[in-house]
Amino acid sequence: METKLSRITEIARTKPKESFTSLYHLLNEEMLLQCHRELGKQKAVGIDKVTKAEYEENLDDNIQDLVQRLKRQSYRPLPVRRTYIPKGDGKGQRPLGISAYEDKIVQMGLSKILQAVYEADFLDCSYGFRPNRSAHDALRALNRVIEKGKISYVVDADIRGFFNNVDHDWLMKFIHLRIADPNIRRLIVKFLKAGIMENGKIEATDLGTPQGSIASPVLANVYLHYTLDLWFEVAVKKRCRGQAELVRYADDYVCCFQYKEDAEMFYSALISRLAKFKLEVAEEKTKILAFGRFAAINRDRMGLGKPETFDFLGFTHYCGTSRAGKFRVKRKTSKKKFRAKVQAVKAWLKESRHEGLDVIMGTMRKKLVGHYRYYGITDNSRMLGSFKYEVSRLLFKWLNRRSQRHSFTYEAYNHFLVLGCNSGHNESGM
């Protein structure tokens, strides 16, 4: 199967105008079994409440039945179950769509096929949900652009509710440019129109693609490839007097310019460009700011103070210097991400304080390690220390609420943290 997908990628790379007419047959037993094996065991369940373990009890028959339904065109994805997670600002909530387990299998197979076709088309400025690319790669690319280039201005733009506003008609027009297989196109439409179930009611989905869906990231990349990336590369750069660069991770992106008039021209054109494809700029979250090696000098000359900052991929970017006095882009955990992460830990501890100490401490270590792996970058040690302090404070508070009397003094608590769960406390009074 990997060989077949690699062959598709090679054809797409060498024949940029090739339209693929026969892809649906790849959703066979081999592909779907592979997708089943790759799906995580702890994934949230859809409206049918079927888990991976339950589906696996009769795996061969289930997969064979699924393949036959796909061949007969009788396969119908179930509506996704809507749930909510806190937004990055720690205030509102972001909707997620949780698909049924069998639908996850098909979506993963479809995503593999689409990725094989479009990976050759996606531009180098795109980093989100692509093989061998990560958010840290996008951050490093942004560093190179600003530190090594001639950048003096940054447009920090945001698309309002992107995943909720993807236009199905435009998306299918984009898909049609590369995929002529009517069965693949029909399957994509089935997922887009599957509907959403919330509070026992099914809502039609005439717009958007659910966040949380396995196929959504590649579909989002296809949409933004045509609406933003290609337009910036082909049209915007040619109209700019100086250097212009784009770095995008999913629907989060930053545009960098050498000259202010180029930045202003781009922002004005961006509003109408996105509107053409039924998208909207979140103007309250968008700004043009002086940023780069000359920003501090220029602002100081005008009496404006330090250069402004901008947020990208959970980090606040600000102008700084190295020990040798050279300009550097520095980063720290953004305030809204920091607050959201602390609130998430607080909510988890409140719900899980009844668990055993080994479970609580084991899970907390994993949460801290995950946080450090992402946010543990140069210049961010202070914010990492602040996060550790807040987590430690919350842990002390909620462990002390496991019984009616205070179980820990700070001295005993610090001793417990050093020794772990073998500190001699029992489960009732710790």
TrEMBL record:
InterPro entries cross-referenced by the UniProt entry: DNA/RNA_pol_sf, Group_II_RT_mat, GrpII_Intron_Splice-Mob/Def, RT_dom
Signal peptide location: none
Top-level taxon: Bacteria
Transferase as UniProt keyword: yes
Molecular-function annotations in GO: RNA-directed DNA polymerase activity
Pfam families: RVT_1
Known EC number: 2.7.7.49
Enzyme class: transferase
Reverse transcriptase domain span: 66-317
PROSITE patterns reported in the protein's UniProt record: RT_POL
Keywords: Nucleotidyltransferase, RNA-directed DNA polymerase, Transferase
Name used for this protein in its record: Group II intron reverse transcriptase/maturase
Source organism of the structure: Alicyclobacillus fastidiosus
